[in-house]
Recover the amino acids of this structure.
């Protein structure tokens, strides 16, 4: 079975631009969460979606948005990119709405570099 | 505010030696506790989790962790490390937000193995 897949794997953008990151969860998983991992730090929670509804939001500015599609795949959008947005963006899927009660399965991430 | 502290940024141990990675958390109630491992260029993999019950939990790859409420700690141990254990290890706490699957990660401990 395929794991969590993320695209693209690497991305270079310029300050002020917009970026869209994509995630396909494990088949059958209805919950998708997004995390930002800055170099040298642990992942930080950005969003969780379950059954196409937002179920949680971390402490990130409104420049960050996300959505989940009927097939449970998800997109993370970041507008007006800043240098500080450079990070590894991780997507995780799980079978339940409350993901800490069921294992989170992480993708390999998208490495975003903002210049 | 809830937080997770991993006091050791980098640890080097000899192959075959025992290992203990430290983790302290700050949270009012009994938390959901996790250890994840991240190999270079990859996403995170769950090693083990504690929700309730026996305070010594067994995980994959021969790892175990012990929950000590009095010390607010959840240290990870392995009796004999292998070169393949070299990676970044993250302690995490969940259940801090009943509305979401937010998991708070520590800043990680990088493990190097000396041949």
């Amino acid at each position: 079975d395929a794991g969590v897949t993320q695209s693209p794997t690497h991305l270079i953008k310029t300050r002020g631009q917009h970026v869209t990151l994509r995630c396909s969860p494990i088949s059958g998983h209805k919950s998708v969460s997004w995390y930002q991992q800055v170099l040298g730090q642990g992942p930080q929670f950005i969003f969780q979606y379950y059954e196409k509804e937002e179920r949680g939001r971390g402490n990130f500015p409104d420049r960050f948005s996300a959505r989940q599609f009927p097939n449970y795949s998800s997109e993370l959008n970041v507008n007006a990119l800043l240098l500080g947005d450079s990070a590894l963006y991780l997507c995780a899927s799980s079978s339940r709405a409350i993901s800490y009660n069921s294992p989170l399965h992480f993708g390999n991430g998208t490495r975003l570099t903002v210049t | 505010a809830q937080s997770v502290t991993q006091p050791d940024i980098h640890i080097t141990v000899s192959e075959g030696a025992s290992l203990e990675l430290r983790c302290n958390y700050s949270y009012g109630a009994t938390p959901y506790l996790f250890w994840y491992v991240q190999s270079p260029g990859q996403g995170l993999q769950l090693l083990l989790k504690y929700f309730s019950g026996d305070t010594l939990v067994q995980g994959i790859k021969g790892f175990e962790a012990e929950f000590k409420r009095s010390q607010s700690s959840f240290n990870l141990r392995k009796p004999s490390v292998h070169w393949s254990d070299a990676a970044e290890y993250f302690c995490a706490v969940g259940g801090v937000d009943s509305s979401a699957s937010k998991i708070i990660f520590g800043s990680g401990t990088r493990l190097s193995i000396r041949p």
Remarks:
- Residues 40 and 84 of chain A are 13 Å apart (CA to CA).
- The longest strand of chain A covers residues 87-94.
- Chain A has no helices and eleven strands.
